[in-house]
Amino acid sequence: MAEELSLDSIKDMKKAEYIKAFKNKAAWKKAKAVIFLVDYKLEGKKAVIAIPFKKENEMKLEMKRLKKEKLHLLKKSGGAEITITKGNDGVAELNVKLTIGGLKPELLVLKATPLLEKIKLRIKATIEGEALLDAASKEIEVDVNENLPEDNMEDVAVDESSNEVYEKDSVEAESEPEKPEVANVSDAIKQTLAKIAKFNKLINLKDGLQETDINNAEALKAAIKDFAAQLKTASAEIRNEFGETFLKTKKIYAKLEEELNRLKNQGNDLDAALNDTLGVSNENASTAPKYEMPAEKKQAIENNKKLMSEINDLIKSVDLYAIA
Q1: Average pLDDT over residues 224-239
Q2: Structural domains in the chain (count)
Q3: Of 148, 174, 203, which marks where a domain is finished?
Q4: Nearest to residue 126, comparing CAs of 152, 89, 88, 94?
């Protein structure tokens, strides 16, 4: 029987032992979450490690431990929710939603494809929530495995067993839903509020609009959606406790939107000031040198304007004071 994969067990595994455990399709059939480690040192080469978990909560706890104990580079580690579906061509697809860790979807797909092909899985990946913040982190990490050769897994045979093993049993499908990590709804909402405050503080437009601001705004949006989802199904008591707080989050977005608009109009303001100082009339204004905001910044501002619109629509769509 193959050894079960974990952050601890892989430390002492040989490649053959890891591949045997990785190819256990029964484990993938039951998996709801995965931890991916890219460029992990395995027998002197850089390899991709994939650790399936039966519960999302277990994955999240292990990812938090990974981050705290620095078991692997954050930018090359990712915790994800997964589902396995059948594509139009009959190939099983591993749908990955990265929710924690700094691993970006593009890098994951590039690195993990050769390995997942060995168990006849095609990978698709997206990113959201806390993972957006982790991916935008500017923390300097030293990659001690950088100069190791890449293991392309060419020596690993493809598992030719039927992919029907990935299909869920009817009995399993009817099993009880996973219990939330935080049993107390009030405490869960407080954790979400802490995320909202954290992401909001990390949006800093003093040096102009940066990629990190866009990522933090997306993470903030995801946290607000989590807050809305929690309140949507909450009791009247919980809604009364947190409803006003939710509505006040509009102020966060109003402030952010104001700053974005200021950046958008900065070019026009500077141009007008230059014309006024140089005594250029409105008729001749077109001949004066004009300040042009870089195209990338313009697009970023437009993207954030769209983001703010989506958030406002979300707030309007949730009637927090309607007591079921």
Answers
A1: 84
A2: 2
A3: 148
A4: 94
Gap between the Cα atoms of 234 and 195, Å rounded: 19
What count of Cα atoms within 13 Å lies in the side-chain half-sphere of residue 226? 20
pLDDT in tens, 108-137: 999 999 999 988 899 999 998 888 888 888
Task: Identify any residues that bridge with 96 across adjacent strands, giving them in sequence order.
Answer: 82, 125
101, 119, 148: which is the final residue of a domain?
A: 148
Q: Which pLDDT score is estimated for 15?
A: 92
- Are residues 15 and 144 located together in one domain of the fold? yes
CB atoms within 10 A of CB 283: 7
Q: Which residues span the domain enclosing 130?
A: 9-148
Q: What percent of the chain has pLDDT over 90?
A: 31
Stated pTM of the model = 0.57
The label of the residue with tokens 């093993």 reads 165
Is position 2 within any domain? no
Structure tokens at 3: 């050894």
